[in-house]
Design brief:
Layout lengths: L1 H8 L10 H5 L4 H4 L14 H22 L5 H19 L10 H34 L9 H22 L2 H14 L16 H10 L7 H22 L2 H13 L5 H14 L5 H18 L4 H14 L9 H10 L3 H7 L1 H22 L11 H23 L4 H23 L14 H11 L1
Helix pairs in contact: 1-13, 1-14, 4-5, 4-10, 4-20, 5-6, 5-10, 6-7, 7-8, 10-15, 10-19, 10-20, 11-12, 11-18, 12-13, 12-14, 12-17, 13-14, 14-17, 18-19
Length: about 450
């Protein structure tokens, strides 16, 4: 997200004046900061890209079906979930930088992703054999075959490598330090930090098969609640709900001192209700709000900082929160609906603190005045319908005590139906600005890709 906001803001210290029509016509520079599909066009005129898109859409549909109509065994569902996302991450995030588009590098990534997926499925299928062999030699460590070791080691390496590709070195370094501690480092540390080392067989088993391991509780949360909420957020964005966010923010905050920055804060807060991802928040709002803040006189670095801080806070905004909320619900046995309800006040306080900084900056440097924001009432109404009704359905279901994944699935269905109804109504409305998005096959595909 840092690269994204810097790219959008890095056009001078104060930025040039940008009129409202110019802002509307700006390219999606947020997404241009990293096009994960660019390298896939290196093969056969984009054939590989099409195949990966088909896989990603099918993968999203599989997640919805397994959370509504049929249930996979926990280990298998988590293994398939890991295998699919590992494959997508390996082919869409280059190992050596954003601009590596060589067809040979792409071929390596495809083979690498397929090997990771195969290893994950092997580990799921090998569980029974490991138990049988271990029970046959009571008192011995967990009995892994050479293939088990190869598959397990590849999965651990892939988890480190793909984490590095997607989010940088911090998480992989922490994992390496943790593994080193239980393997050998703990026996060399003094005092309370000293710990007996564990045998490699035990570490591999705990990493793969324990509830705290790669395919344990956290993987179950990811394969159900988190992914379904990501897909629901994708449907909201594709349906035009993000237009409602921008337009309502213009009405509420657009005409006060520092209005452009207040629009950024409010739009990020509202986008946080439909997406628990800071990156998705920045991509959907920052491309409009950062140029808008600069055109209103705010410094480029301050504009980027406001967007980054506000988008990060989107993870705190109910009802669709970051992954931490689902982890908290799982480990504490507190219903997700309860966590959502008690998170409202802290989330509001967070965004108020960002708004106070905006106000101080606007008054201190006498910027943020004389901003004329034209509101598109057609987008406001059409986007508002697809924003409010599905969220209301989801919140009602959550308060009724159903699982978050079940609530998200029904909210997706409600959104699709609402989009069809509003499209039918639009045929009888003479207002040309009222153009609701109908969720047909193309839009549903787009929504699944955004979510996945």
């Amino acid at each position: 997200m840092r690269d994204m906001v810097v790219l959008m803001a890095d056009n001078g210290e104060t930025g040039s004046r940008v009129s409202q029509p110019d802002i509307a016509d700006m390219p999606d520079t947020a997404n241009a900061s990293h096009d994960p599909w660019l390298s896939l066009d290196a093969w056969n005129g984009g054939l590989l890209r099409k195949l990966v898109v088909i896989f990603a859409v099918s993968f999203g549909i599989w997640h919805i079906l397994t959370n509504i109509y049929f249930v996979e065994p926990g280990l298998w569902q988590n293994a398939i979930h890991f295998a699919g996302f590992a494959f997508l991450a390996s082919v869409t995030f280059s190992p050596f930088g954003k601009n590596a588009v060589s067809k040979y590098a792409v071929a390596f990534d495809v083979v690498y992703g397929l090997l990771i997926a195969a290893a994950a499925l092997w580990v799921a299928g090998a569980e029974t054999g490991i138990y049988d062999r271990t029970l046959a030699v009571t008192g011995q460590p967990w009995q892994f075959t050479i293939v088990d070791w190869a598959a397990g080691s590849l999965l651990i390496f892939a988890a480190l490598d793909l984490s590095r590709r997607v989010s940088g070195w911090v998480i992989p370094i922490l994992i390496i330090l943790s593994l080193s501690y239980v393997l050998f480092l703990g026996s060399y540390l003094p005092g309370v930090f000293r710990a007996a080392s564990l045998p490699p067989n035990d570490i591999l088993f705990r990493t793969l098969y324990n509830d705290e391991g790669m395919f344990g509780i956290l993987a179950s949360i990811s394969s159900t609640n988190i992914t379904l909420f990501m897909i629901f957020g994708g449907f909201l964005v594709a349906s035009g709900a993000s237009d409602f966010v921008i337009e309502i923010s213009k009405i509420v905050a657009g005409r006060i001192r520092g209005g452009a920055a207040f629009v950024a804060v409010m739009s990020s807060a509202l986008t946080g209700t439909i997406s628990g991802s800071a990156i998705a928040n920045t991509a959907s709002t920052g491309v409009i709000t950062i140029p808008l803040m600069k055109s209103n006189g705010f410094r480029a670095k301050f504009a980027a900082g406001v967007e980054a801080a506000a988008s990060t806070g989107g993870q705190l905004m109910p009802p669709i929160m970051g992954a931490g909320a689902f982890v908290m619900a799982s480990y504490t046995s507190i219903p997700y609906a309860t966590i959502v309800s008690v998170s409202v006040v802290p989330a509001i306080l967070y965004f108020l603190s960002v708004a106070f900084i905006v106000r101080i900056e606007a008054v201190k440097f006498q910027v943020g005045e004389n901003l004329d924001l034209k509101v598109n009432y057609g987008k406001l109404v059409s986007g508002g319908v697809t924003f409010i009704i599905p969220l209301t359905v989801m919140i009602w279901l959550l308060m009724s005590g159903v699982t978050p994944s079940y609530a998200a699935s029904w909210a997706i269905g409600a959104l699709i139906v609402v989009s069809w109804v509003t499209s039918i109504v639009a045929r009888f409305v003479k207002n040309t600005s009222f153009e609701p998005v109908s969720m047909g096959p193309t839009k549903i595909t787009e929504a699944l890709l955004i979510g996945i």
